[in-house]
Amino acid sequence: MTLDFFKTSPAFISKKKTTHLVIEAVKDNTFEGWLKKQGKAIKALVKQMDFAPKSKRLLVLRDKEQIPTRVIALFKDETSIFDGAVVASMLERPFSESFLDSASFEFSGLEGEDLKAAYIGWGFAAYAFDQYKAKQKKAPALTWVKGVDKKAVLSVVDSVNALRDLVNTPANLLGPQELEDASRALAEAHEAKVKVITGKDLLKKNFPLVYTVGMGSPRESRLIEFTHGDAKYPKLTLVGKGVIFDTGGLDIKPSSAMRFMKKDMGGAAHVLALAKLILDSKMKVSLRVIIPAVENAVGGAAFRPGDIIKSRKGLFIENTNTDAEGRLILADALSYACEDKPDLVIDYATLTGSARAGLGPDIPAFFCNNEDVHEPIRKAAKSAEDPIWPMPLHQPYRKHVETGAGDMINSTGIPGDGIYSALFLESFIDQDVEWMHLDCFSWESSGRPGRPVGAADTGLRAIYEYLNTRYG
Fold it and tell me: Both 107 and 161 in a single domain?
């Protein structure tokens, strides 16, 4: 079965449909002025429908035959990408599915970054993981208007939606091979060079931790790599945790904790989505993407608690918990990443429950061995409406990981695992290499406009915003 992850969103069309409606955007702070200019009929309708800031945000105007003629939508004073998502989602209330299927819409009253944000939000709201359902969602269609940056909108929307599809796809359909296929599809679309090391060749090429974690699965582990860009540009390396399913190994998870472990390759999905954004924008970097792809399964060949494994870097790791496998495969991948002496290494991983306990599901824990970037990262996160939070690489805590029967242990079993895991990973970063680590959840549990229940981008757009400022 061929899976197409990097496809164009169907939310946007070039030609108007038979029924075409203008969505007039009104900012909250201009609402009173807008209302004064309206006739008695519209003023009466506004009052009747309780249409006002902090109340209902969508108003459909109709003619005497009750045929819709225009839509008024309230936007926040500082336009959010999720304003566009709210509008797209709310259209499903006053209009039937058949009407939306035959209609198209366009925005008026917005320009520049506000217009771009509205389009991105609309694209986010149009997403649905429903290809395995008998009936697919038909999202309302938005036509392109003059002044909107079409390429930028599609790059963001299609990158985020690809991430969502990758994480939402169950592990029986997305294994290490399929993750390789997705990586190849992205790389080849941009004429990047691809290299993959598979199965026992991982031992021959000195990736022992990647090989060990996947030993319990019949699906061969692999190290996926692709490169793109002129060598004269700064070297940017992205590393993503690609555990396509995590049972916990012999330290098996309870069923409630295992239910959504298809998302344990969320780090790899983030890295592929970020790579697409970078490649689409033609950012002036020499890009390298590294994804260790494994399945942490239970089987006769599975690695055990207490096993000691020599890493690529030469450090001996005592495995104290087979459910702390992500940091093991990242250790080899990060060691490999540093051998090329990059300007910056960024890794994404669905790594610890500790980060979720401290920051909740929406905010990735951010670690960096260069604290000077903390303020620029905060600004980028705010600009991108994509919160992340800097956390300390508190060096005295190293005593908790530099212990045991080897040089290090992979799990301490005491509170603070988000920091301990980051310190563990830092041990595989060369001292002269700048490194960022995002411990992200990659999941939306409650559902809201533009963020449906299921896979979610967490920290993707913030880091892209930062990189665009740094290298763009």
Answer: no
